[in-house]
């Protein structure tokens, strides 16, 4: 009898684990931290997953979505790594800029987020409000986008940022105050952009490693 009770508990626990994972996504428990990794990359999703497990700390996406609910991340406030590389949002009434960046204000409640990957999204403009609330973010990856300039205070809310990857864009103009507020920045990657060596930008932080090579083609 005790064996049957134990078996029933195991089955119920397993069912709860499966139920909390979005359909077609793959969820796996991290044994050391008792948290979930949710992998929805190339899983054929048509809608943004709305039933993320509350203990999710890694989320990998990269799909075509018709819309993303404003509270899409409200149930996953423990997220520490969010991979949105090659995210495609279909929006017939939006211009290209809105289509690619309208997701970002929905991240403001992710206070535990440390790593944000936004590569290959054709993002052409950066504004400080895109990163509002991400005060604990330490790594922001924006390679292979369509950036041509960096305006003043573009990253100001990211007071804990240590790594910023802006490589493989087409950045020509950098405001002298583009990196205002990034006092903890340790690595800035501007490789393969169009910025000239004499571009007057300043990063007033010690021990910064700066990588710059010009775009050759």
Element layout with pairings:
Layout: H1 2-19, E1 26-30, E2 35-39, E3 56-60, E4 64-65, E5 81-83, E6 88-89, H2 96-101, E7 115-117, E8 139-141, E9 149-150, E10 163-165, E11 173-174, E12 187-189, E13 209-211
Parallel strand pairs: 2-3, 3-5, 4-6, 5-7, 7-8, 8-10, 9-11, 10-12, 12-13
Antiparallel strand pairs: 1-2
Characterize this entry briefly:
One of its GO terms (cellular component) is plasma membrane. The chain is α/β, with parallel strands linked by helices and 217 residues long.
CATH architecture of the largest domain: Alpha-Beta Horseshoe
Oligomer status:
single chain
Number of spatially distinct domains: 2
Could you tell me the CATH topology label of the largest domain: Leucine-rich repeat, LRR (right-handed beta-alpha superhelix)
By helix and strand content, what is the structural category? alpha/beta
- First-to-last CA distance: 73 Å
What's the number of extended β-strand segments? 13
């Amino acid at each position: 009898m005790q064996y049957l009770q134990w078996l029933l508990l195991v089955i119920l626990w397993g069912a709860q684990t499966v139920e909390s994972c979005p359909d077609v996504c793959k969820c796996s428990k991290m044994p050391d931290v008792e948290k979930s990794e949710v992998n929805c990359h190339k899983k054929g999703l048509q809608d943004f997953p709305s039933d993320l497990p509350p203990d999710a700390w890694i989320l990998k996406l990269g799909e075509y979505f018709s819309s993303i609910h404003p509270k899409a991340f409200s149930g996953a406030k423990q997220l520490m790594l969010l991979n949105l590389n090659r995210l495609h949002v279909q929006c017939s009434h939006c211009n290209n800029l809105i289509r690619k960046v309208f997701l970002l204000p929905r991240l403001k409640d992710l206070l535990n987020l440390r790593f944000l990957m936004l590569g290959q999204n054709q993002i052409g403009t950066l504004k400080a409000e895109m990163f509002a609330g991400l005060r604990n973010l330490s790594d922001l990856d924006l390679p292979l986008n369509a950036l041509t300039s960096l305006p003043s205070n573009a990253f100001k809310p990211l007071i804990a940022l240590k790594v910023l990857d802006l490589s493989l864009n087409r950045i020509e103009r950098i405001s002298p105050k583009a990196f205002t507020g990034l006092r903890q920045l340790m690595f800035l990657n501007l490789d393969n952009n169009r910025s000239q060596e004499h571009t007057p930008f300043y990063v007033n932080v010690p021990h910064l490693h700066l990588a710059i090579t010009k775009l050759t083609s």
